[in-house]
Amino acid sequence: MAMTWRRYDLQRMRWRLINYPHLAEPDVLPAALDWLDGEIAAMKKAATDPTP
């Protein structure tokens, strides 16, 4: 359950950066979005992966 909440937190951060780009430095915004996308994808994969 904690992983689900963490994933939603990351998705909210991503949404916030996309909709309010002035909240982040322009130089690091693309890297931040890439990192968030990677973390969210890894959590989704871990949630659906049947192997422990």
Describe, in plain words, how this protein is organized in 3D.
With 52 residues, the chain is mostly helical. It has one domain (2-45). 73% of the residues lie in helices and 0% in strands. The chain is built from 2 helices and no strands. It has helices at residues 2-19, 29-48. Helix 1 (2-19) runs antiparallel to helix 2 (29-48). The longest helix is centred in the last third of the chain and has 20 residues, at 29-48. It is elongated, with a radius of gyration of 13 Å. The two termini are 16 Å apart.
Spell out the helices and strands N to C: HH
Distance between the termini: 16 Å
> In terms of quaternary structure, what is this?
single chain
Strand content: under 5%
Q: Helix amount, in percent? A: over 70%
Give the number of helices: 2
How is the secondary structure organized here?
Blueprint: H1 2-19, H2 29-48
Brief rundown of the structure:
With 52 residues, the chain is mostly helical.
Which structural traits does this protein have?
52 residues, mainly alpha, 2 helices, 73% helix, 0% strand, elongated
